[in-house]
C-alpha cells in the first residue's frame, strides 16, 4: 500500500539521524493506535540512514512478566559490542546501563536504538530508557520509541517516562489516521468502494490494508473479520499451524516454530499470503493485531491446548526462556509449572528493578498457594510484601509482611522469622509510625541469639541500629551497627557499605571523631557491587551525616550524586525522599518557583502517593514555608498545620524539627499563632545532641526574631549579624542573607536586604523590612514590584 501522508514525520526522523551523525543525539517518540503504521514509518526512515550508522532494534513482549531488558537482548543479538557482551553474560542492571551507554557513545559510529511497543516494556527497560533520554543529547545516537498511546492510561508507568522526556532533543511524532482523500484513492485503485472502506476503517492503515487485500462485494465490518477472511483462504492444515502460532506472543523463535507441527515449512502459504513473516531467527505475524484477531477467534479449550503444547516444547529446551514458560503456564492453567519456576522469574525481575513484573508473577503464584511447601509460601510472602511496597501499595504490603511473620512463626525457623520481622519493620518504618518499627526490629535480633554469624545476623543488627538512628536514638544504635559492620566485614561483603554508612550517620549524631571518615569510606568500592537500592540508601546516609556535621558543601555534593543515582530507576519511597530533599536545597538557593513546582508534583503523584511520613516531614514543611514566604499565607498555613499533625504522629526529629521551625517563621512573618510555642518547646527539649545543631540553631534564630528567650550557643550561621550574613552569602542562600541584613539598624544594609527580598518575591519579609526603614526615619523607600511584575518574578 506504500507509505502515505508521513512526509513530515520522515523528515523529522531524518533530521534527528543527521544531528546524531554530527554528535547531537535525540529521542523520537512515535505514537499512535494499533495499526497506525509506527513500525512501517521507522523501517522506512531507517532505510535511508547516514553512512556508518548502526541500528539496534528490539521490541517489548506482551507477557505476564516480560524478560528484563528483553528489547535490549534482541537489539544486541548479532552484534559484538559492549551491550551484546553484557546481556550475554547476564550482567546486573547497572552493568547493562553502562554497556548501553558505551554502545551508543560513538566508538563504532553513530547509532540508532529502536525499542518498539514500549507500552509493554518491563520496568528495567523503562528505567534504562529514562536514563538514556536524559543523556542521549550528548551522544551520537538516537533512541526511537514506539508505543500505542491509547493503551497508556493515567496510571501506566510509561506515562511517567513520557513526562520525564522533555527538552529540545525530544521529538514527539503522533501519527494520525489517513485522510479521506488518501483512503478513497487507495480504495479506487484496489476496486473497492471508497466510502465503505472509509466508514469501516476510519483511515487506520493496517485495517485498510486488510480490507484492500480482500476485495469483495462487501467490506468487512471489523479488523478481525478482515484478518479472518484472509486466514480462511488457507488450507486446513496451514490454518491450524497459524492458529498454533497465534498463541505465541511475538516474536516466536524459529527453533520453537520448527518444533511445532509442520515447522516453518508448513507456514509457506501463510507467508505468501502476507499473514506471517520470517525475520532472522524469528517468525512473526505481519502485525500483532493479526495475531490477536486469530487468537481471539479460537474456542477456549483449543486455546488452552495450544498453550500446553507450546509450554511442553519450551520446557524441553536445554535453557528455557523462563518468563515465556511462566506466561504459557498461566495461559494453560498449569499451576505446578507456575509455582516451580515463578520464584526464579520473580527474583530475576526484582533484582533488575522490574518491580511490576515481579509483583505479577508473585500474585500468580499466590493463586496456587496450596501447592507450595510451607517454607516456600512463607518466603513468597516476604517477596510479595516488597513487590507491593515498590508498587506503592503500602497498606497491602504491611498486611502481607504481618502474615509472613505469622507463617515463619509457625515454622519455628529463626532465620526466616528474623528476615520476615525485618521486612515488617521496614514496612512500618516507611509508614507514618516509624517508632512502631522498633519492636519487630528488636525481635529480629533476639530470635537469632546463638545463630552462627552470617547475612541474617548482619541484616537484623543493621536494621535495628538503623531504626534507632532514624528515631533519634544514636547512642543505643552504635553498638548494633558496629557489630553489624564487624560481621559484614567477615561474612557479608555486599552489606559492608550500608553498615558503614549507618555507623557514620550514628557517629555524626553523637559527635564521634571518625564520623566523616566512616561516611566517606562507605562509598569506596567493595568486592560485591552495590545493588542500586542499597547505593541510594548509602548516599542518603552520607548526605544526612554531612548535614549533621555541618559540612554543607559535602551535603550538597552527595545529594547531587544521589539525585543522579536515582535517575536510574522509577521513583519509589527511598527515591522520592531524595527528590524532596533536592527541592528543599533548590528552595534554599532562592529558586522558589522551581522548588514549588517540584514539590507540588510530588504531592500530585496520584498513581504512587508518597508515604504519609514523607509528605509530612519532607514535602509539606518546605512547600508551606515557600508559600508563606511568598505571601500565599492561607494555603501555606494549612500545609504547616497538616504537617505538624503528621509530625506528631511520626514523633521523630526529622519530622518534628522542620515543621516547628516553619511554624515559628510563619508566626514571625504573619503575626498568627498556629501552635508554634508548643512545637518549639517540644523540639528544643530533644535537640541537645551535636548531630542536631542545625535544627537547634535554626529554631533558636526564629525564636529570637519572635522575641522568645533563646539560651545556649548556636552555629555561626544562626548567630546573627554580619558574620551570619556573610556565611549565607558563601552558601548561596539569598533569603537567609537578606533576613540578616534586614535585622540591623543600618538603613543601607536593610535596603540591600530589601532588594534581595523583592527579587525573591518574599512579600511578608519585605514588608517587615520596609517597616524597619520607616521606623528609622527613611522616607524614600522602594515600593517593590507591581503585582503583574511579581507574578513573573523568580518567587
Runs in which pLDDT lies below 50 for 5 or more consecutive residues are 606-610, 788-795
By helix and strand content, what is the structural category? mainly alpha
Multimerization state = single chain
Query: What would CATH call the class of the largest domain?
Result: Mainly Alpha
- CATH fold field value of the largest domain: Serine Threonine Protein Phosphatase 5, Tetratricopeptide repeat
What kind of sheet is the major sheet? 5 strands, parallel
Describe the structure.
The chain is mainly alpha-helical. It has four domains: 7-174, P-loop containing nucleotide triphosphate hydrolases (Rossmann fold, 3-Layer(aba) Sandwich), CATH 3.40.50; 180-221, no CATH class; 355-574, Tetratricopeptide repeat domain (Serine Threonine Protein Phosphatase 5, Tetratricopeptide repeat, Alpha Horseshoe), CATH 1.25.40.10; 596-790. The protein contains 41 helices and eight strands. Strands 2-3-4-1-5 form a five-stranded parallel sheet, with helices on both faces. It has a three-stranded antiparallel sheet with strand order 6-8-7. A hairpin with a 2-residue loop joins strand 7 (276-279) and strand 8 (282-285).
Amino acid at each position: 500500500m506504500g507509505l502515505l501522508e508521513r512526509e513530515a514525520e520522515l523528515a523529522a526522523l531524518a533530521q534527528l539521524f543527521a544531528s546524531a551523525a554530527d554528535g547531537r543525539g535525540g529521542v523520537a517518540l512515535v505514537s499512535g493506535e494499533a495499526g497506525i503504521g509506527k513500525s512501517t514509518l521507522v523501517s522506512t526512515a531507517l532505510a535511508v540512514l547516514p553512512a556508518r550508522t548502526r541500528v539496534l532494534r528490539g521490541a517489548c513482549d506482551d507477557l505476564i512478566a516480560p524478560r528484563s531488558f528483553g528489547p535490549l537482548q534482541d537489539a544486541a543479538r548479532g552484534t559484538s559490542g559492549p551491550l551484546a557482551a553484557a546481556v550475554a553474560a547476564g550482567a546486573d542492571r547497572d552493568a547493562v546501563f553502562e554497556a548501553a551507554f558505551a554502545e551508543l557513545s560513538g566508538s563504532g559510529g553513530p547509532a540508532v536504538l529502536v525499542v518498539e511497543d514500549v507500552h509493554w516494556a518491563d520496568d528495567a527497560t523503562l528505567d534504562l530508557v529514562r536514563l538514556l533520554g536524559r543523556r542521549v543529547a550528548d551522544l551520537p545516537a538516537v533512541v526511537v520509541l514506539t508505543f500505542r498511546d491509547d493503551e497508556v492510561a493515567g496510571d501506566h508507568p510509561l506515562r511517567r517516562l513520557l513526562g520525564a522526556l522533555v527538552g529540545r532533543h525530544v521529538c514527539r511524532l503522533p501519527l494520525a489516521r489517513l485522510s479521506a482523500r488518501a483512503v478513497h484513492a487507495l480504495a479506487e485503485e484496489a476496486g473497492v468502494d471508497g466510502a465503505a472502506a472509509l466508514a469501516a476503517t476510519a483511515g487506520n492503515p493496517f485495517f485498510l490494508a486488510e480490507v484492500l487485500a480482500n476485495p469483495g462485494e462487501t467490506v468487512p465490518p471489523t479488523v478481525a473479520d478482515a484478518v479472518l477472511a484472509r486466514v480462511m483462504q488457507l488450507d486446513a492444515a496451514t490454518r491450524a499451524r497459524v492458529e498454533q502460532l497465534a498463541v505465541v506472543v511475538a516474536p516466536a523463535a524459529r527453533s520453537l516454530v520448527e518444533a511445532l507441527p509442520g515447522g516453518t515449512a508448513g507456514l509457506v502459504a501463510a507467508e505468501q499470503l502476507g499473514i506471517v513473516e520470517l525475520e532472522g531467527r524469528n517468525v512473526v505475524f505481519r502485525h500483532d493485531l493479526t495475531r490477536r484477531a486469530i487468537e481471539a477467534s479460537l474456542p477456549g479449550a483449543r486455546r488452552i491446548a495450544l498453550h500446553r503444547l507450546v509450554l511442553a516444547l519450551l520446557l524441553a529446551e536445554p535453557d528455557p526462556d523462563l518468563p515465556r514458560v511462566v506466561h504459557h503456564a498461566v495461559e494453560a492453567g498449569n499451576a505446578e509449572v507456575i509455582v516451580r519456576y515463578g520464584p526464579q522469574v520473580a527474583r530475576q525481575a526484582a533484582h533488575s528493578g522490574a518491580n511490576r513484573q515481579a509483583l505479577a508473577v508473585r500474585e500468580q503464584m499466590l493463586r496456587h498457594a496450596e501447592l507450595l511447601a510451607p517454607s516456600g509460601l512463607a518466603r513468597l510472602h516476604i517477596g510479595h510484601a516488597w513487590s507491593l511496597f515498590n508498587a506503592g501499595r503500602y497498606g497491602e504490603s504491611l498486611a502481607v509482611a504481618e502474615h509472613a511473620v505469622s507463617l515463619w512463626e509457625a515454622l519455628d525457623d529463626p532465620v526466616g522469622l528474623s528476615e520476615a520481622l525485618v521486612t515488617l519493620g521496614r514496612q512500618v518504618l516507611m509508614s507514618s509510625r516509624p517508632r512502631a518499627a522498633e519492636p519487630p526490629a528488636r525481635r529480629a535480633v533476639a530470635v537469632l541469639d546463638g545463630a552462627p554469624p552470617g547475612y541474617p545476623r548482619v541484616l537484623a543488627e543493621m536494621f535495628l541500629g538503623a531504626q534507632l538512628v532514624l528515631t533519634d536514638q544514636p547512642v543505643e544504635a552504635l553498638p548494633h551497627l558496629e557489630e553489624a559492620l564487624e560481621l559484614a566485614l567477615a561474612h557479608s561483603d555486599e552489606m559492608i557499605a550500608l553498615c558503614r554508612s549507618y555507623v557514620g550517620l550514628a557517629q555524626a549524631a553523637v559527635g564521634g571523631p571518625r564520623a566523616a571518615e566512616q561516611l566517606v569510606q562507605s562509598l569506596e568500592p567493595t568486592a560485591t557491587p552495590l545493588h542500586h537500592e542499597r547505593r541510594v540508601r548509602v548516599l542518603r546516609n552520607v548526605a544526612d551525616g554531612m548535614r549533621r556535621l555541618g559540612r554543607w558543601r559535602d551535603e550538597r555534593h552527595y545529594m547531587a550524586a544521589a539525585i543522579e543515582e536515582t535517575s536510574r530507576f522509577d521513583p519509589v519511597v527511598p527515591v522520592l525522599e531524595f527528590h524532596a530533599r533536592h527541592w528543599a536545597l533548590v528552595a534554599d538557593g532562592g529558586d522558589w518557583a522551581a522548588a514549588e513546582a517540584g514539590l507540588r508534583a510530588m504531592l500530585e503523584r496520584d498513581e504512587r502517593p508518597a508515604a504519609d511520613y514523607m509528605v509530612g516531614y519532607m514535602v509539606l514543611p518546605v512547600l508551606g514555608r515557600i508559600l508563606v514566604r511568598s505571601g500565599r499565607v492561607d494555603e501555606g498555613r494549612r500545609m504547616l498545620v497538616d504537617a505538624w499533625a503528621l509530625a506528631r504522629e511520626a514523633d521523630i526529629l526529622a519530622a518534628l524539627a522542620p515543621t516547628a521551625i516553619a511554624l515559628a517563621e510563619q508566626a514571625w512573618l504573619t503575626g498568627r499563632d498556629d501552635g508554634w510555642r508548643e512545637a518549639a518547646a517540644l523540639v528544643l527539649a530533644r535537640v541537645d545532641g551535636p548531630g542536631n545543631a542545625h535544627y537547634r540553631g535554626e529554631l533558636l534564630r526564629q525564636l529570637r526574631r519572635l522575641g522568645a528567650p533563646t539560651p545556649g550557643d548556636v552555629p555561626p550561621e544562626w548567630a546573627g549579624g554580619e558574620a551570619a550574613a556573610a556565611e549565607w552569602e558563601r552558601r548561596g542562600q539569598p533569603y537567609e542573607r537578606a533576613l540578616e541584613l534586614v535585622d540591623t539598624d543600618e538603613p543601607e544594609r536593610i535596603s540591600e536586604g530589601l532588594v534581595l527580598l523583592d527579587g525573591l518575591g518574599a512579600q511578608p519579609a519585605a514588608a517587615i523590612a520596609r517597616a524597619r526603614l520607616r521606623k528609622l526615619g527613611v522616607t524614600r523607600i522602594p515600593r517593590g514590584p507591581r503585582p503583574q511584575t511579581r507574578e513573573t518574578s523568580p518567587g
